[in-house]
Amino acid sequence: MSHTPNLLLQNVRPIGGNFDGTDTVDIRIAEGQIVEISAELDSKEDEELHDANGSYLSGGWMDMHVHLREPGYEHKETIETGCKSAAFGGFTEVACMPNTNPAIDSRDVVEFVKNNAEQFSVDVHPIGCVSKERKGKSIAEMGDMKEGGAVAFSDDGDPVYNSQLMRVALEYSSMLDMPIINHEEDLKLSRPGHMHEGRVSARLGLDGTPGIAEETMIARDILLAKFTGGHIHVAHISTAKAVDLVRQAKADGVNVTTEVCPHHFDLTDEEIERRDFDTNVKMHPPLRTQKDVEAMIEGLADGTIDAICTDHAPHAIQEKEVEFIYAPNGIIGLETAWSISVRQLLDSGALELAELITKFVEKPREILNIDIPKIEEGTPANLTLFNTDQEWSYREELVQSKSHNSPYLGESLKGRAEAIYNNGQFVINTI
Description:
It is an enzyme of class 3 (hydrolase). It comes from Fodinibius salinus. The protein is of the alpha/beta class. It folds into two domains: 2-57 and 377-387 and 412-428, Roll (Urease, subunit C, domain 1), CATH 2.30.40; 61-368, TIM Barrel, CATH 3.20.20. The chain is 30% helix and 21% strand. It is built from 13 helices and 22 strands. The strands form five sheets. Strands 1, 2, 3, 4, 5, 6, 7, 18, 21 and 22 form a ten-stranded mixed β-sheet that branches. The longest helix has 18 residues, at 211-228. It is globular.
């Protein structure tokens, strides 16, 4: 990483806004601002020069659903290591979930996270709790947390189970113009499930979580959002029927948005059998069926699913190296999200490049009411430099996260983020 307020990016192909990714240009950045865009620029003495050799350049990517674990669980991840992981994956901004210790349920904890992240190349936007201590009993100080810099509210890790509490939260959502992000799970239907309930779970003898556990909670929240006028955001959607529910709700004018993780449009529950109970394919919601995977891709293609997120969930090695039923849910995802998206969405023809970039750049920020970075003269430089065709291997020594719980370790991937520029810092990813 270099503190590089002055930079000349040569031979980049911008995509987004007025650019379609076909023409090669040079972009001059001075004091963290884009000051010049032209077909050919000469470098100055006081600026760093980087020849991109025709790689794409977009506004900086954003992941609106990550777990940075700090404060309280720094043995899994810290704000610093999470930001390094994000930068390697091409993300210049992340929104972090509040299931920390203490939980992000007050303005002082929101400000602690923001202050600790100020020095890094990745902007961190805290998501505050819906309920105090994430206990689901009383509403948290939402207005105060917004003043401190929170961008949304969630009890993620657990659902907002109490319907009256969710109603109140959505009413606040309407007043504050901020989304309520719910972990959609009917606990009475889902527990003690360790994977998707279906043929594979029956064959393996594991307790399963049925899709209906997710769908009933989504249906409730859609009805409450319609009733209150609040904005419900469905976290990490995973079933075909859930996508249908959101699609219909959008058609009915309900203020509902949703996101999907790469593992849910790439892997199925059969991975658990194929990988002999590898705990790095244990997550929540669980990996579903091929039909569900196809529904995720279709939902992205038709706009039902707004954004791609990772649900980056670091766990220490000793926590995952246990029997499958005792392992915590979750995988790291920041570093492989682009490559999996290229494979499943771009190379398959499901999405065009410009459509895919929208899911990474514009949609997460629209949902969270955050300024969308632009490739224009006179704007702050918040940029991701990337390709769609470079083959690379995701190896242990490349992992920037403090944790290594990924099902993609050792895999050959294609397409990667080459660098980011944000906050006057230019971070080049070497592999």
